[in-house]
Backbone:
């Protein structure tokens, strides 16, 4: 079951992912249907309460529901606790989601983190590099949490859906696919990391009913590309987007221990750009009869 073959796609084998009909995501905290366009926005990693609070306010003022923030990133959480296993980031995320009535999305990178993260996080993210970590997928599936599954840049649709199939086989009922860029022999810009694959949306629709969103941040890794990719994701008819945003907090850079780089700083957009672009996304979604949440 490590990838999905043509035969399986043609339904000679029964696949959970290949079920027909409209998709439905129905968790205790939220429900989505095919008219919804979800925006999962927030920090690469949780760095402070202040940072997450500013982000939460921006989400609320744009009428959005999903907040993201990594807690187990390898370079997690300076300056509060330079230990990647710390729960500090998770606790902040929970405090903010409770206070602002949001839904949290956060990456779980190892089996050992699942139990702790379950207490704080609403939706688990499987990172691109873990897409085919089947032991992890098994345990995440069993946790019954809703999942955002990212595609590894070096894998194709079959591998991607194979991983989705595995998660669902082990118990995940609410699964959102996330395209986050693929490797390609020629890139448009030598400084861009990967290329966002827009064709994957209709390709997924042809095979299964799972929702698919576009990660407009990690795909190129280039800040200037992000705004146009946000509107493109809506125009394409994807089921949503993921984006990293950051408040201007003077002083944050200064309190970091020397030598520690704030990660992913070249790709994150500021809150003003984000809000401006969300207005455009909403207009596109209005035309397409979709609700931006
Ligand atoms: C992230 O979401 O912050 C991240 C690093 O994602 P990816 O697994 O797509 O690299
Ligand atoms: Mn990131």
Residues:
């Amino acid at each position: 079951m490590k990838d999905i073959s043509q035969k399986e796609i043609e339904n000679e084998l029964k696949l959970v992912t290949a079920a027909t009909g409209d998709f439905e995501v129905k968790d205790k905290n939220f429900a989505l249907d095919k008219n919804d366009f979800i925006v999962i926005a927030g920090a690469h990693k949780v760095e402070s309460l202040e940072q997450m609070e500013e982000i939460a306010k921006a989400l609320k003022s744009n009428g959005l529901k999903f907040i993201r923030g990594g807690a187990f990133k390898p370079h997690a959480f300076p300056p509060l606790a330079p230990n990647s296993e710390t729960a500090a980031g998770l606790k902040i995320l929970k405090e903010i989601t409770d206070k602002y009535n949001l839904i949290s999305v956060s990456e779980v990178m190892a089996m050992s983190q699942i139990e702790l993260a379950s207490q704080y996080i609403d939706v688990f993210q499987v990172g691109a590099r873990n897409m085919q970590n089947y032991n992890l997928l098994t345990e995440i599936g069993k946790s019954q949490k809703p999942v955002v599954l990212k595609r590894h840049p070096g894998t194709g649709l079959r591998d991607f859906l194979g991983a989705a199939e595995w998660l669902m086989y082990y118990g995940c009922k609410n699964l959102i696919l996330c395209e986050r860029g693929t490797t390609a022999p020629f890139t448009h810009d030598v400084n861009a990391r990967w290329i966002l694959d827009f064709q994957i949306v209709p390709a997924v629709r042809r095979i299964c009913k799972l929702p698919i969103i576009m990660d407009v941040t990690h795909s190129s890794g280039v800040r200037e590309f992000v705004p146009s990719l946000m509107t493109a994701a809506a125009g394409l008819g994807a089921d949503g987007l993921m984006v990293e945003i950051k408040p201007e907090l003077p002083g944050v850079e200064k309190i970091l221990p020397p030598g520690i780089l704030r990660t992913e700083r070249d790709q994150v957009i500021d809150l003003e750009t984000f809000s401006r672009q969300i207005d455009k996304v909403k207009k596109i979604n209005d035309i397409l009869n979709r609700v931006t949440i």
In short: Residues 20 and 158 are 18 Å apart (CA to CA). The first helix runs from residue 6 to 9. The mean pLDDT is 87.
